[in-house]
Amino acid sequence: MNIPDCFDLSGKRLFITGGSRGLGREMALAIAQAGADVVLAGRDQASLEESAMDIRRIGRESFPLVADIGNPHDCEAACRQVLTEFGPIDILINNVGGRLINVPITEQSLDDWQKIMDLNVTSTFLCSKLIGGSMIERGLGGRIINIASISGIIANRGIGGRSYETSKAAIIQFTRTAAVDWAPSGVTVNAICPGGFMTAPNRNWARHTPEVIEEFERQIPMGRFGDPKKSGRWRSIWRAMLHAI
């Protein structure tokens, strides 16, 4: 088998949350270029349709699904719908997430804390449980990639909302435990911890609180944010997928 064949995902199907914008969109396009069909979940119908059309232009099937993955009830319903209407799923990318708030620990409400935990951690758990569980039942293996963050390893300075760092650290540990549990079934589970990228949420931070972005940039060794479009091939994902499916 030559190297390009190792990355061939023809006949496979991806389900990605938060797949219509930013890094999620670039990952979905890159995996479609490798031959997989893609089910995209997100809240915005217009961006979902746009990304789905771009995937179809590559020559792959794409199925947009409007769902609030940060709401546990909606997330579970979306996963069941995916399995019923678009399954089987071979690859799951738990990408949806965000910080959303910039408040000190002493001022963050319990509701806001739970909202971020549900968006980042509970969604990863539910999608892994249901989609990953279906992979185990099929007995043909599968691939789960959780998008954590460098913020799950370090403590950022100059910004509040520590529920974000906490949730991303939880995703990293959840990934480790799921990987141990599911490896005998041929379902591999990995996490990727991106640094700062100038996605739509960070552009929004830059408009409203530029000092936050400036502080982030000072903490980046290269002194600048990454560009999602220049990272569309996501070679770290390809390496994680190699020989996994």
Keywords:
Rossmann fold, 245 residues, disordered C terminus, 9 helices, 49% helix
Named at the architecture level, the CATH assignment is 3-Layer(aba) Sandwich
Main sheet: strand order: 3-2-1-4-5-6
Structural class: alpha/beta
Please report the first level of CATH classification, the CATH class.
Alpha Beta
Q: What's the main sheet like? A: 6 strands, parallel
CATH superfamily membership, which one? NAD(P)-binding Rossmann-like Domain
The gross shape turns out to be globular
User: Overall mean pLDDT score?
Assistant: 86
Query: How many DSSP helices?
Result: 9
Gyration radius over CA: 17 Å
Low-confidence regions: 232-236, 238-245
CATH-defined topology:
Rossmann fold
In helices, the fraction of residues equals: 40-55%
Alpha carbon gap, first and last residue: 15 Å
Number of strands: 6
**Could you tell me the strand content as a percent range?**
5-15%
Tally of individual domains: 1
Q: What is the H/E order?
A: HEHEHEHEHEHEHHH
Structure description:
The protein is globular, with a radius of gyration of 17 Å. The longest helix is centred in the middle third of the chain and has 29 residues. A six-stranded parallel sheet has the order 3-2-1-4-5-6, with helices on both faces. It is an alpha/beta fold and 245 residues long. The protein is built from nine helices and six strands. It has a single domain, classed as Rossmann fold.
